[in-house]
């Protein structure tokens, strides 16, 4: 009974964000210091991919933590977005030249103050524009490359999406279409979640086609990235309830050509994070094409600014010509 009571407290803390769950609040620190420490984990195979390394990100800056989205910029720098509406710009491990920068996405007096729970990012490499998906308000915001100018939209098709499971994943495809997927169904019992396929930029008023995304074994979609062959990698995450809670993560491969109006979009399992790789709350995904046709896959974890989790960065490599496991 006591264990059940403690688990209920953990669930309540995750749902309500109670102070007992989060790290103690410290004095404001705007030092913009960031340290990446490589974890002592040997390289090895994870399914058809190769695990290259894992790094823990640490910073005394009070804006640090809670990263739920990750994209790569033209200069090779990473841009991570947090569920508190903040950003972190930093260099990938083993590289230099990117000044560490903490900040926030632009806001104005008219900007909805609830727009802080950023869950997804995607980018157009030609224009440099960035789109962000926000939960609770179920909004899509388009930022100019300077991240200071923006336009937003609150799609009617997303109005009834779960407050805590709105546009968890958003992806601009190379052909200009957009895919948006909710993390959960509003009823919390379905084995699929709602998705939208836009023929063009939703901020410009494009009308979407609705579909469902299949989520196997109670895993939830939390991010997407496109592969060079036009298929899509989907990052899936499941909470393993315990004291403290744990997490399981998978990567699926899905083809946008299979999306049908009113149909169910499915992917094939590529791999599951397991073995010596820390099973953290991975929510951000970025894909980097390599000259030999393979891709470098980056995952970043959301520490929920809690005392029990870490901000980790994983690096994997995979050749998309290798068949994903069903």
From TrEMBL:
InterPro entries annotated for this entry?
Phytase-like_dom, UCP031900
* Protein name (database record): Uncharacterized protein
In its UniProt entry, the species of origin is given as Croceibacterium atlanticum
């Amino acid at each position: 009974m006591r264990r059940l009571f403690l688990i209920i407290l953990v669930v309540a803390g995750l749902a309500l964000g109670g102070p007992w769950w989060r790290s103690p609040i410290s004095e404001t620190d705007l030092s913009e210091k960031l340290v990446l420490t490589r974890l002592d984990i040997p390289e090895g195979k994870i399914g058809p991919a190769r695990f290259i390394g894992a790094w823990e990100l640490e910073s005394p800056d009070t804006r640090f933590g809670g990263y739920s989205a990750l994209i790569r910029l033209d200069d090779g720098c990473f841009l991570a977005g947090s569920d508190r509406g903040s950003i972190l710009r930093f260099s990938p491990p083993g590289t230099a030249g990117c000044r560490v920068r903490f900040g926030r996405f632009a806001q104005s007096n008219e900007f909805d103050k609830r727009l802080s729970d950023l869950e997804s990012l995607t980018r157009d490499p030609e224009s440099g524009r960035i789109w962000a998906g926000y939960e609770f308000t179920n909004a899509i915001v388009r930022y100019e490359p300077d991240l200071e100018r923006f336009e937003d939209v609150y799609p009617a098709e997303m109005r009834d999406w779960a407050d805590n499971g709105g546009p968890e994943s958003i992806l601009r495809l190379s052909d200009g279409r957009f895919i948006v997927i909710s993390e959960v169904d509003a009823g919390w019992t379905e084995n699929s979640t709602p998705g939208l396929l836009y023929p063009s930029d939703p901020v410009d008023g494009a009308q979407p086609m609705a579909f469902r995304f299949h989520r196997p074994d109670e895993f939830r979609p939390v991010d997407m990235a496109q592969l060079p062959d036009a298929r899509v990698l989907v990052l899936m995450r499941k909470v393993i309830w315990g004291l403290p809670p744990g997490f399981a993560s998978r990567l699926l491969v899905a083809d946008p050509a299979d999306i049908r109006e009113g149909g169910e979009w499915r992917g094939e399992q590529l791999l599951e994070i397991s073995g010596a790789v820390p099973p953290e709350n991975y929510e951000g995904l970025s894909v980097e094409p390599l000259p030999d046709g393979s891709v470098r896959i980056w995952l970043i974890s959301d520490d929920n600014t809690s005392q029990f989790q870490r901000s980790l960065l994983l690096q994997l490599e995979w050749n998309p010509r290798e068949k994903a496991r069903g």
